[in-house]
Amino acid sequence: QVQLVESGGGLVQAGGSLRLSCVASGRTFSSYAMGWFRQAPGKEREFVAAISWSGRNTYYADSVKGRFTASRDNAKNTVYLQMSSLKPEDTAVYYCAADRSLSQRLEIFMREYDYWGQGTQVTVSS
Fold first, then answer.
1. Which side of the chain, N or C, has fewer Cβ within a 10 Å radius?
2. What span, in angstroms and rounded, lies between the C-alpha atoms of 115 and 64?
3. Is 16 helix (H, G, I), strand (E, B) or coil?
4. Are 20 and 72 in contact (CB under 8 A)?
5. What whole-number distance in Å separates Cα of residue 79 and Cα of residue 96?
6. Quick check: 35 and 21 in contact, CB under 8 A?
7. Is residue 69 within 8 Å of 85, Cβ to Cβ?
């Protein structure tokens, strides 16, 4: 079992930056690809970014490409999402998730992820 805890959310003005963190329990964290998703009020949860177990490979939704960067520190059991040039439409609850399948593919669908954090609120004011 893996437990995930996100932090780093908050209120920021448009154009600003935030870095989200997701700390995982369990010794198998370094074997799992990780994903970031977000859910805005009244909308479905959507894929934001994914990062391979090594951190060498990443994949982003078109809406955040060039503005968000996923990274990880396996020694700290932590994955990060650096968010820059934030827009009001980035306002959402952000979730990290772990894919325990050991697949080399970075997944964009929620159903492919096995463990989820509780989420952290990001609010971008205009």
1. N
2. 23
3. coil
4. no
5. 8
6. no
7. no
- Total number of residues shown for the chain: 126
Measured between alpha carbons, how far is 66 from 82 in angstroms, rounded to an integer? 11
Report strand pairing: 4-7 vs 10-13.
unpaired
- At residue 32, what is the residue type? Y
- Tokens for 116, please give them: 């989820």
Geometric angle at alpha carbon 115, from 104 and 84, rounded to 5° = 75
Positions of the chain with pLDDT lower than 50, given as ranges:
none
Please count the helices (runs of H) and the strands (runs of E) in the chain: 0, 11
How many other C-beta atoms lie within 10 A of the C-beta of residue 98? 25
In angstroms, the CA 34 to CA 53 distance is 7
